[in-house]
Inverse folding.
């Protein structure tokens, strides 16, 4: 496995692969890899000739009061995990290289970036689309893999790729969960033992929502109230519990087609997101 | 010469060329080609294996009260001119294809887009960078050619390419002028005979500014006042006459290194821009 830290070298490597007719699968990450990331790498391994994993904690997607500095990092462990999952190249650029002093270009997917998490993390998705656009230009992948846990992110990136005619496919893979149902996240390390125990309530509530839909409940408000009732006692704060359209992320009142139930909550200093797709048929 | 109207076919063509190791030179235009465009196409012909010229009047870069509808168009003439200048492919996509109904992704170069013309045409450069980004993704050029007449545009596009790590080079070619010095522009057809005659005053004033700098004048205000004095009697309105830094486009008071003298004026319904680089040494 190669580790490439230079943007220019990464680009040259990808160019060379393309000239040989090789297909590049790409998994962009912020490192501190968990089983969710590894499932993306394994999928990329199955479907491509070359697998590139980027590790870059992107300052542009963190708000000034958010956890950029304390975000967990462990390159050595990431290298081992990525290699074992079948990575060919880790792309590990420096912040200085990615954002030069006079950096001033941004990619924004309007509307979608302001909904759900966008309301609570202004500028977050602009940071995500800008860095992902840059990474796509450098790595030149044929396919890029994202996790369904960040459902809004995946929807926004798909839209960016469509609108800007980026020459690649986006694949969104299922959420990987801990035994008790908590969605895998690098941020789960922020939880203390009690919070970690309480955090499984999110999955319990999502399952309850799915059950209600199976029992023919179609009223979003009734479902989200039920979810709130289950989650509220075990968390410190709820940012949102919303049932939204899968394309425009706008609230849906009556569930007629598959919709996204998305949740963001706080346990102490740890903000967790999770979601499920509610299917009425 | 090929005419390609489908985004997908354009992309496939470029991919095929790259796999053959061919170098693609690209000249993005809004059509109604003149000698300025043709100089770009000829340069692209000299330096590349394949020359692609796009013709697309981009609605996104026109304000609601601007001349999108009346902007001159003549595809038949453009095809002849482009072919004679050495074009291999004209890419002529439809607006519907470029901007689907739910289009919502924008590329913005902050700061630079708000200066000079940006003050008078809010949203203009956002429209330019968004469409040029799309065209680059579709055409996949190795080099793209722009005219120095749109100096701010060229500076902004270079910045976008640098910041987003787009894998291509931007080349900026000299302004091509009519015999009396008026910079070639598709919009010159808006001028009536009297306005057309008066319009040459812009070049006269730019030359005078160059002369002053040669005579060791370094005070920007003195130079721009002189330019204004020359131009004002022959035009209906002056949007700006500014002497700015070539990198950040901010006003320069004392000329110590090469700076941009940029001018935007109106003659009737025709807005003309022109510029020169003032070199103190």
């Amino acid at each position: 496995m190669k580790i490439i830290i230079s943007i220019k070298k990464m680009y040259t490597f990808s160019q060379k692969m393309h000239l040989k007719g090789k297909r590049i699968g790409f998994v962009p990450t912020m490192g501190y890899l968990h089983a969710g990331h590894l499932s993306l790498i394994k999928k990329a391994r199955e479907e491509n000739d070359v697998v590139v994993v980027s590790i870059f904690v992107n300052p542009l997607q963190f708000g000034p009061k958010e956890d950029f500095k304390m975000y967990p990092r462990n390159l050595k462990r990431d290298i081992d995990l990525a290699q074992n999952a079948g990575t060919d190249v880790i792309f590990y650029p420096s912040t200085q290289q990615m954002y030069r002093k006079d950096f001033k270009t941004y990619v924004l997917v309007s509307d979608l970036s302001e909904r759900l998490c966008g309301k609570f993390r202004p500028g977050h998705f602009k940071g995500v689309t800008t860095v992902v656009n840059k990474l796509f230009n450098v790595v030149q992948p044929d396919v890029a893999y994202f996790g369904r846990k960040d459902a809004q992110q995946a929807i926004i990136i798909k839209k960016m790729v469509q609108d800007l005619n980026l020459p690649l496919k986006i694949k969104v893979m299922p959420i990987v969960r801990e035994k008790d149902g908590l969605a895998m996240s690098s941020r789960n390390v922020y939880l203390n033992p009690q919070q970690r125990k309480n955090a499984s309530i999110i999955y319990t509530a999502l399952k309850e929502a799915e059950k209600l839909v199976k029992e023919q409940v179609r009223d979003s408000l009734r479902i989200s109230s039920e979810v709130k009732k289950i989650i509220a006692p075990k968390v410190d704060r709820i940012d949102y519990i919303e049932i939204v359209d899968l394309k425009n992320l706008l609230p849906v009142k009556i569930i007629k087609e598959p919709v996204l139930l998305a949740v963001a909550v706080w346990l102490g200093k740890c903000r967790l997101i999770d979601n499920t797709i509610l299917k009425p048929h």
Summary: The CA atoms of residues 13 and 139 of chain A lie 8 Å apart. Chain A touches chain B through 35 residues (CB under 8 Å). The beta strands of chain A are 2-4, 24-29, 50-55, 89-91, 105-109, 143-147, 169-173, 237-245, 259-267, 270-278. The first strand of chain A starts at residue 2 and ends at 4.
